[in-house]
Amino acid sequence: MCTRVTEAQWAYVTNITETNKKRMLDALSLQTKLERVSRQKAIGFNWSIMPDPTVRKQLQLLATRGRTALSDAKISELSRIVSEMKDIYNRARVCPFSSSSKPYCDLALEPELSRIMAHSRSYEEQLYAWRSWRDATGPKLKDRFIRYIELANEAARLNGFRDAGEQERSLYGVEDLQNQISEVWASLAPLYRQLHAYVRHKISKQYAPPHRINPTSPIPAHLLGNMWAQNWKNIFDLVMPYPGKRRADVTSEMLRQGYTPQRMVQTAEEFFTSLGLKAMPVEFWHKSMLERPVGRHVACKASAWDFCNRRDFRIKQCTEVSMEDLLTTHHEMTHIEYYLHYSELPLIFRDGANPAFHEALADAIGLSVITPRHFHRIGLLNNITDDYETDINFLMEMALEKVAYLPFAYIVDQWRWKMFSDGPKDMNSAWWELRAYHQGVIPPVSRSEKDLDPASKYHIISDQPYVRYKLGNLKN
């Protein structure tokens, strides 16, 4: 059943049609019925007194995991709502900034809008992309998201939890996870604030009146090189401590050498096999989606897939030839390596040691791959310059990616958990209060409760808890 459902989900995200959506929802419905039967059988056992800890844990997971306590109608409704939210998100398109070509409203988040946010230095063009993406997503998703919260909470309460946030946190096996995360963030916030102040000072020189940045106020969220201001590495050229030193960005060298998406994936595989880890199975090369296909809608967000049969593992990625996508390829292949290494376990145990463990491993691999020494070893960097100024530039670039990400990763689930615990009220203002307080960013234009700006982030509308990314980052 797991293979059948995963195949249906794959078919849908790699070819978004109504037919494929119906097949996916039908498969999910069958899976739910099977899980409900399994749950009822597990509840019938007094698993707490069973001597075998492995059997005891499997029965415990069957009895408490998931949302099968809901009625068939509500489970179907929840699946349909999440599917519709993903569909709206993946199909969202906006018009170009240039008024002369506005009839062709075909700019997707990836790659077009993300490129604008990363590379444009026009205040107005970045603002247009930022606002247009939120107009194309949030208002259309808001009512569905509210209903999603209601159904997720109902399922959690039927499983004995106060709300869906508490159910998510229970997977970590830590009683006061939320407080512990807050304490860790509080200890790191001073470092982030120093980075924020430095970046604000540097980019304030980029924009003249009327777009001057107040040197003591939060930064407008569209100026940090990323649609969600979660990663600031794309503005490195504006904030580089020592501009005279060469940057270790190998994109131009990859293009010069004729890299393709296929070669990028092969390069990632060579990295893992050099560590004594496993090569990708035959099915991986035959069935992965490594480039954006022509002529159909797909969900371009990179992801790794386990088809539950111990041999079929795939990556879905609209790969472009760039250093960033090369790192993403290594990240996703780390997930595949983890799948391969626990594939012999019982199906219910085929997951990370906790929900953050997958991301921690993938981020650790990323830190190994991004070094100038590694790029030199694989022929993408000719000379390694070992001096103070180059090292500081490298560390700044890492900080723009890793340190800048910390408050955003913290905020996402703080907001989600608040919506679960307090109910979906003042959703947009609550989001921006958290972002201003913890991240020091503000919306560049006026926002209201008609908007739902958190819905511009895929994880939020696709029923994916985000704290795993925060914890994965902290472990590195």
Please give a structural write-up.
This protein is an all-alpha fold and 476 residues long. It has a two-stranded parallel sheet. Strand 2 and strand 3 form a beta hairpin. Helix 4 packs antiparallel against helix 6, helix 5 packs across helix 6 and helix 14 packs across helix 20. It starts with a helix and ends with a helix. 37% of the residues are buried. Its EC number is 3.4.-.-.
Give descriptors for this structure.
two-stranded antiparallel ribbon; single chain; mainly alpha; 4 strands; 476 residues; globular; 58% helix; two-stranded parallel ribbon
Overall radius of gyration: 23 Å
Q: What coarse outline follows from CA principal-axis ratios?
A: globular
User: What share of residues is helical?
Assistant: 55-70%
The strand count comes to 4
Summed over residues and divided by their number, the pLDDT gives a mean of: 92
Percent of sequence in beta strands: under 5%
What are the secondary-structure elements, in order, as H or E? HHHHHHHHEHHHHEEHHHHHHEHH
C-alpha end-to-end distance: 36 Å
Main β sheet profile: 2 strands, parallel
Overall structural class, as computed from helix and strand content, comes to: mainly alpha
Q: Low-confidence spans: pLDDT under 50, at least 5 residues?
A: none
Separate helix tally:
20
**Oligomeric status:** single chain
Q: Give me the side-by-side strand order of the main sheet.
A: 1-4
Binding site for Zn(2+) 1: 331, 335, 359
GO molecular function: carboxypeptidase activity; metal ion binding; metallopeptidase activity; peptidyl-dipeptidase activity
Keywords: Carboxypeptidase, Disulfide bond, Glycoprotein, Hydrolase, Metal-binding, Metalloprotease, Protease, Signal, Zinc
Family: Belongs to the peptidase M2 family.
